[in-house]
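User: Quick sanity check before I run a bigger batch. Here is a single chain. Can you write out its predicted 3D structure?
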Amino acid sequence: MRTARTITYLSAALLAAAGFACGGGGGGGGAPQVPSAPTGLVADAGDGQCSLTWNQVAGAESYTVYYSTQSGAGTAGTAVQRPTNNATIPGFTNGTTYYFVVTAKNQAGESAPSAEV
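Assistant: Done. Predicted structure follows.
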């Protein structure tokens, strides 16, 4: 009996140590963090539309593209939700300048905006 009890305690201690070392420990790996601001935003104008791409952001679940005819509008512009790191947005007027920023989102919140293009 004494041996069985010692093995049980040792097993429990090893499992607890393994969980701690692997990010376990009951916390589920910690709370999610707000993603970083997207980088590498590129806009390519087309006939009445604009195609955008940007670098994927670790931990992002979705992205929001904001656009405006006013520079510096940032997240006050019109918003378009995207599940991936690209978008083609129709409905633009040829010859008009549009400004774009992108944010990344997850359960913890929305990132700061990307650099404006």
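Confidence is low (pLDDT under 50) at residues 1-27.

User: Great, the batch can go ahead then.
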